[in-house]
Amino acid sequence: MGSEATGTVHFGRRVSKGRALLETDELIFRGDFRLKIPFKDMRSVAAKKNKLTIAFSQGVVVFELGPAAEKWAYKIRNPKSLIDKLGLKHGLQVSVLGINEESFLGQLRRRVGAFAQGRLKKDSDVIFLGVEKKGDLSRLEAIQGFMNRNGAIWVVAAKGSQEIREAEVLSAGKSAGLVDVKVVSFSETHTAHKFVIPLVKR
Prior knowledge:
- This protein is of the alpha+beta class.
- The chain has 5 helices and 13 strands.
- A 7-stranded antiparallel β-sheet has the order 4-3-2-1-7-6-5, with helices on one face.
- It starts with a strand and ends in a 6-residue tail after the last strand.
């Protein structure tokens, strides 16, 4: 999950107190009005005297965040790589099913070394499951048998897909006895949801 802070936001003539959320690739504000600003849409980012000022396509917005302002400015200017957002480290046992994006596979190879592609490795620390249709989600329960009890399954699905909606991904995970703990933007077109076995069942 991202970072959270409460404060006052100035956007044009509008001023509102509310909650700001710094996610992996966007900043969200919820108050009397709402904002969602993707990092890629930000033209400039500055922090001074506990204020975070961001210029983007719709104008300039000022977040009064206190000490968090400097930290958030740094995180926005230095976004994590996909591999870092997915929490992947050297030495992990990884299995990949249904994902053939070379950019991701190349990053994965450089970070963890060898991994199982197109098959499941016993006691995998992390399993990636690419899904294209609802039927693919039914594999979640069986996949758990190949996962380290403290491991995770990332379900990667197309953004805004009419074939598989986000609610259906979350529901499938719950039905398989898993809990969703994180979501990241996998690419311009896909989203990844992280599922783990509940602590009481490990």
